[in-house]
Design a protein that fits this description.
- The protein folds into nine domains: 159 residues, D-Maltodextrin-Binding Protein, domain 2; 90 residues, Periplasmic binding protein-like II (D-Maltodextrin-Binding Protein, domain 2), CATH 3.40.190.10; 129 residues, D-Maltodextrin-Binding Protein, domain 2, CATH 3.40.190; 62 residues, Periplasmic binding protein-like II (D-Maltodextrin-Binding Protein, domain 2, 3-Layer(aba) Sandwich); 106 residues, Beta-Lactamase, CATH 3.30.450; 80 residues, Orthogonal Bundle (Helix Hairpins); 160 residues, 2-Layer Sandwich (Heat Shock Protein 90), CATH 3.30.565.10; 178 residues, Response regulator (Rossmann fold, 3-Layer(aba) Sandwich); and more.
- The chain contains 40 helices and 45 strands.
- The chain is elongated.
- A hairpin with a 3-residue loop joins strand 15 and strand 16.
- The N terminus and C terminus are likely disordered.
- It is an alpha/beta fold.
Length: 1270
């Protein structure tokens, strides 16, 4: 709380009132000139100011001992003040006093009523200098440097605004440029008053809305006269010409001398002058954003980010605390103030050393330097802002150094200087700038002080501010200032290139808008010391005079004060109530989370909230300022949104009804969807008074609706594609199925023996159907990204010759010439997926045979080496068929595409083959292309990159048919399996192969008991059994010295390589994958014959991988995936029937076996369902493995795959939502197998002939191969 003013201060206010009133009212009757005024100032001869070196011994100062200075009265207060007692004081008086203290000159002051009179006196020689502004110089007068800025400010009342249609601006005569004022305040009316005081009174008492004048004068008058209802709210968007001293050409020597003196006035003195005459800072209520000129605002829009040179260490102005830290310091604090008041963003560019900043500024790599000493040389190359501080340049030494006390003592010493000062005249003393001392240039201040600390130099020269800061914060007072290098301090400013005068103008406006107290606070934070600000007061004689004046006017003031106080109180209460209502309305509108606006009856924008302004990228105040000039016709000229709002507003005005609508339009370069609403507003007399409107941004909702619609359309398209696909596939499936079912029906109802030609037709149709299904499965895997390759070492020549064995007879059957050339340079083995390579080549050969009616089909394969990782396999398939048109070739490699519309009906097929080939080659990093001419033929080219490899010894020569092995005699075998059907199967197979003595056991423990009482040569055991499994049994056998010699064969339905490794580690000699073929068993029995050298030692041989058997023989190691694919191509029903036919020659035996397999399958499926219901996942997995073992007996792959997937899902806990969903695939596969078993049982029990045994050399094609009974 402020204390009441003291009596002397109150008296001073009253006397000042009387004096200013006299100045305002009596100026017109004063004479043209007055006698010389007495210069009075607080700056006296004791200010310790020294004459600049440039003026020492100057003849001009000797010639002009008295300088006559003229000024115009009543113009700029407090720049010029003429008190009633013939005293002259003010800003100019203080500066002249400082010049007098520096030079010894005496100044004589003369006042004039008008500028014309003063100028006439100057030209006539009645005065030597004229106080004025820089723009008054013209072409005939010369001017000094500016000694005080002419910053213009806006002054308004602190209460509610005066209701008026046109803003009235009050100015003092000859104080503001009328053209600039009219250009920046276009809608306002300008009134000119004789003095600043009268102009301020007009605003204070409601006769004007705004005062524009000198900021210092306005604040001084408000403070002195206690016009508390006024406040400086902002700075004007333009500035006046600075205050200078003018002279005629004949007084140019004197003017130059005065200019030198002005430029050497210390900033400390200038700050004291400003602080004295500025008055209290409490009258400054400047908005955060300063008023900028249109040119400056446009420059900011074009350069929103300003790059400044950030020195690594120029403390305390700008430096880095850490290697990765951002710059900090006094200059950075000033940049933050500039950002807050202009919106400019500053981006640091780190400089390697201080000297690089000038080069970077000149080259355009940076736009601004933060702390530069403004020397005369540097002013020739760059622009400088208003100085924000000044500093002496000093010589710093160690605190105990006694030999350096002045600049001349540096001769012969090692002196360190900053890199940006070398060669700059004035900053370094003459003894250092010459060659009298050894100079070392440091990259930054920190390095410079470390040199001094480490005694690498004897002294350093730097500015006093940095020296004090670093000595106090980094070096604990180790150093001391020995002497100064110049007679006066140097100003420190921002610097920019000549290409950016707007930037310097913006910085000057911000620095001018910052109160001196705030600048002093920033400087004190980094100087580390508080600067005492001098206080100015009145002398005793002046105080007595003010008291006398107060006694005369006190009565009048008290009466008038009481009346004014009561009036002010009542108006204040009314204003507060009105302000509360307006604040409530403003808070309500601004708080709405969507755009809201109000337009009056004429269409002018009356109010809006920030959301409305944000939609236009502007502030609400700016929109309201522009909107006052709009009407209904011009309101819609700003874009699609404005046009839509204006049209709807006119409709609401005409119909007097609310309007709400959705619309899609482009706004500020973006497509938006808005829900717009407008309501009519009525006055108290129910007359139309405007519209209240706004909008909600519903772009996201509309986008979601459109995306839903697009998703629905995509789903419909996908559904149509699915229907097309199903129609195509059903047609392709129905054709071979018709041949299969028709032929089978004829064979079933016919009484004659089956016709082999009919069976061949059925087999070909089934093979066609299987090929179609395989293509569809490959297509599904490729689309799902699940098709993987299995590259293994393979003999390319052998793999391709196997294909030739298939396709050469087909070509001869069609009467075509078939040529094949396999390059002699083909490597003996390369690493490829042989199955997929055969699939690709087979597809191309099949197509060539299909589409060639006469002529030639040729295959050419060659090898091209030279690659770092191997070589390339080149395959070419050429035919002389119909050829492919050029416009159809591009679509051949798309799915479900064929060469012509009638191709499918003439030759069959789905159009997937070439697409699958291309996808497979893409995975192999290969490629395929074609060359064709319609009517002449087609040639397909394939390139497959591959690397040479070595074939395993077990795989060499496997392409040749194996020699029949003799059945060993006298073998004694033990079969161990917990599945009865598996045991029965193995017993039948061993009996077929000549093993007479066969014992059986249901688990490992029972097997060990049998081995303890019976002589045995061979043990065949299931790997996974309840109780002691096959692995544990094998380990027990190898641990027993009596049984260690036995040949142990494991059986499993799991074809993974890790299962084979587990069997080998347990001690098994071989591991067969169910179903085990007779050929595979015969080969193993040959190794296990009594006395065979392989018995008991075969497990250490190279053949330790899984042995996989199919109905066609034994596959090579590592071919699990290929076996699964091969089994799929043979067909599940055909394979099961063929397996039963291989084992049983008697119908009743086959039926009994199938009954047992069916019952055990039902039992295991039931146990799985019970375990899943009880949550016993391990039990369910074990039962599933048993069920898989039974299905493996007949090679029924659907159940094998379903069991494997079920086991994996259970073991990894990847279950469906319910046990029913998890069991569903297994149930479906088991139902299929149950139907197959029932059909096989009926066929076996019917006693119809199939084949006499597996030695016939022909397999059944589609029905069980059991012997005829009876």
């Amino acid at each position: 709380m402020r204390s009441p003013p003291s009596w002397p201060r109150f008296a001073r206010y009253a006397a000042t009132w009387l004096w200013l009133a006299c100045c305002a009212c009596g100026g017109w009757c004063a004479p043209a000139t007055t006698p010389a005024l007495k210069l009075t100032s607080s700056i006296g001869a004791d200010a310790a100011l020294r004459l600049p070196p440039a003026l020492q011994g100057s003849p001009v100062l000797r010639a002009y001992r008295t300088v006559r200075v003229g000024y115009v009265r009543h113009t700029f207060v407090p720049i010029y003040l003429n008190r009633a007692d013939k005293l002259f004081e003010g800003v100019l008086a203080d500066y002249l006093a400082a010049l007098a203290a520096m030079s010894g000159l005496r100044f004589e002051i003369t006042g004039f009523d008008t500028g014309a009179q003063a100028r006439q006196a100057l030209e006539a020689g009645a005065i030597d200098l004229l106080a004025g502004t820089a723009d008054e110089a013209g072409d005939t007068l010369s001017a000094t440097s500016a000694y005080f800025t002419h910053r213009l400010a806006e002054v308004r009342r602190t209460g509610p605004a005066r209701p008026t249609a046109t803003q009235v601006i009050a100015i003092a005569r000859d104080s503001v440029d009328r053209d600039s004022l009219a250009r920046h305040y276009r809608e306002a009316r300008i009134e000119v008053f004789p003095t600043q005081l009268l102009a301020l009174e007009a605003v204070a008492f409601g006769r004007a809305d705004l005062f524009v004048g000198v900021a210092t004068g306005a604040n001084y008058l408000i403070d002195q006269l206690q016009l508390l209802q006024l406040a400086i709210t902002n700075f004007a968007p333009f500035s006046g010409a600075p205050f200078v001293l003018l002279a005629t050409p004949r007084q140019r020597p004197l003017l130059q001398a005065i200019d030198i003196l002005l430029r050497h006035v210390p900033i400390r003195i200038a700050g004291d002058i400003q602080q004295r005459w500025l008055g209290s800072a409490s009258h400054f209520r400047v908005a955060q954003q300063v008023n900028l000129s249109p040119e400056e605002a446009a420059w900011i829009r074009a350069h929103p980010r300003v790059r400044f040179g950030a020195a690594r260490f120029l403390a305390p102005f700008s430096f880095l605390d850490h290697r990765d830290a951002s710059p900090t310091g006094l200059s950075m604090d000033l940049l933050a103030v500039i950002t807050a008041r202009t919106g400019l963003q500053f981006e640091p560019v780190l400089l390697d050393n201080d000297a690089d900043g000038f080069a970077a500024l000149g080259s355009g790599r940076i736009d601004l330097l933060l702390s530069v000493t403004a020397t005369e040389e540097r002013r020739q190359h760059m622009l400088f802002s208003t100085p924000y501080m000044e500093s002496l340049w000093v010589i710093t030494t160690h605190a105990d150094e006694q030999g350096i006390r002045q600049a001349t003592d540096l001769a012969g010493r090692r002196v360190g200087v900053p890199g940006n000062t070398l060669g700059t005249r004035g900053l370094l003393p003459d003894g250092v700038a010459g060659r009298a001392a050894s100079i070392a240039v440091a990259p930054d201040m920190l390095v410079l002080f470390r040199w001094l600390q480490e005694h690498k130099v004897d002294a350093i020269i730097t500015n006093l501010t940095s020296a004090n800061y670093l000595n106090a914060t980094r070096f604990d007072g180790q150093f001391a200032v020995a002497a100064t290098t110049s007679d006066s301090p140097w100003p420190i400013s921002f610097a920019a290139d000549f290409r950016s005068p707007e930037l310097i103008g913006i910085i000057d406006k911000v620095l001018d808008s910052v109160p001196p107290e705030e600048l002093d606070a920033i400087r004190r934070d980094w100087n580390g010391a508080r600067v005492a600000i001098p206080r100015y007061g009145l002398s005793d004689r002046q105080t007595q005079g003010l008291l006398l004046g107060l006694a005369v006017s006190l009565g009048l003031l008290c009466a008038g004060g009481l009346y004014l106080g009561w009036s002010y109180y009542t108006r204040r209460q009314q204003a507060l109530r009105l302000r509360d209502q307006l604040e409530f309305q403003r808070t309500l509108i601004n708080g709405l989370p969507f755009a809201v606006f109000v337009r009056d009856a004429h269409g002018r924008l009356a109010s809006c909230n920030p959301h409305y302004a944000a939609a236009y990228g502007d502030t609400a105040a700016a929109l309201l300022e522009r909107g006052r000039a709009d009407d209904w016709e011009r309101a819609g000229s700003g874009g699609a949104l404005d046009a839509r709002l204006a049209a709807l507003a006119r409709s609401v005005r005409a119909q007097r009804r609310a309007c709400m609508t959705d619309c899609h339009l482009e706004h500020r370069g973006q497509d938006v969807d808005l829900f717009i609403w407008l309501l009519p507003l009525y006055g108290a007399d129910r007359r139309f008074d405007g519209v209240l409107g706004g909008w909600l941004d519903i772009t996201e909702r509309k986008r979601t609706e459109r995306e839903l619609q697009q998703a629905k359309q995509a789903a419909d398209t996908a559904n149509r594609a699915k229907s097309t696909f199903l129609a195509t596939i059903s047609h392709e499936i129905r054709t071979p199925m018709h041949a299969i079912l028709g032929t089978l029906e004829l064979e079933i109802r016919s009484r004659r023996r089956p016709d082999k030609q009919s069976l061949v037709a059925v087999q070909q149709a089934a093979q066609s159907l299987l090929t179609l299904i395989n293509d569809i499965l490959d297509y599904a895997k490729i689309e799902a990204g699940q098709l993987s390759l299995d590259p293994q070492p393979a003999d390319p020549r052998e793999e391709l010759e196997r294909l030739l064995l298939i396709y050469r007879p087909l070509a001869h059957e069609k009467g075509l010439q078939f040529k094949a050339h396999l390059d002699e340079t083909l490597p003996p083995a390369i690493r490829i997926d042989a199955l997929r390579v055969r699939q690709i080549v087979g597809n191309l050969l099949s197509n060539a045979l299909k589409f060639t009616q006469h002529g030639l089909v040729a295959l050419e394969v060659r090898w091209q080496g030279g690659r770092p990782d191997g070589g390339t396999l080149h395959i070419a398939v050429r035919d002389t068929g119909a050829g492919i048109r050029a416009d159809q070739q591009a679509s051949l490699f798309l799915p479900f595409r064929q060469a012509g519309r009638d191709t499918g009906s003439r030759f069959g097929g789905t159009g997937l083959g070439l697409w699958i080939c291309r996808q497979l080659l893409a995975q192999m990093q290969g490629r395929i292309w074609l060359r064709s001419e319609f009517g002449l033929g087609t040639e397909f080219f394939v390139e497959i990159p591959a690397s040479p490899a070595d074939l395993p010894s077990s795989a060499t020569g496997h392409a040749l048919p194996p020699e029949p092995l003799a059945t060993p005699a006298g073998l004694r075998a033990l079969v161990v399996d917990d599945h009865p059907a598996n045991r029965q199967l193995l017993v039948r197979q061993l009996g077929f192969l000549g093993v007479v003595t066969v014992h059986t056991a249901a688990d490992g423990r029972e097997a060990l008991e049998i081995l303890a009482h019976h002589e045995t040569d061979l043990v065949i055991t299931d790997c996974n059994m309840a109780g002691m499994d096959g692995y544990a049994l094998a380990r027990s056998i190898r641990a027993d010295a009596r049984l260690r010699h036995l040949f142990v064969i494991g059986c499993t339905a799991d074809a993974r390589p890790e299962v084979a490794r587990q069997a080998q580690e347990a001690g098994m000699d071989r591991c067969l994958v169910k179903p085990a073929g007779l050929d595979a068993l015969r080969a193993l029995l040959q190794q296990a014959r009594p006395g065979s050298p392989l018995a008991g030692t075969a497990r250490t041989s190279t053949s330790t991988s899984t042995s996989t058997s199919t109905s066609t023989g034994t596959s090579p190691p590592g071919s699990t995936a290929r076996t699964r694919r091969s089994g799929t191509r043979e067909g599940h029903a055909q394979r099961a029937a063929q397996r039963v036919g291989e084992i049983f020659t008697d119908g009743p035996e086959a039926a009994a076996f199938l009954h047992l397999l069916q019952s055990t399958s039902h039992q295991y499926l039931g146990e799985i369902e019970q375990a899943m219901a009880a949550g016993a996942l391990s039990k369910a997995a074990s039962d599933a493995h048993k069920l898989k073992g039974g299905a493996a007996v007949i090679g029924f792959e659907p159940v094998l795959l379903a069991c494997a997937e079920f086991e994996q899902a259970v073991s990894h806990r990847v279950l469906q939502e319910t046990p029913e969903r998890t069991l569903q695939p297994l149930r479906v596969a088991c139902a299929h197998m149950d139907r197959l078993l029932a059909a096989l049982i009926r066929y076996a029990e019917s006693g119809r002939a199939g084949r006499t045994g597996p030695a016939d050399g022909e397999g059944a094609a589609g029905r069980p191969a059991v012997s005829r009974t009876g």
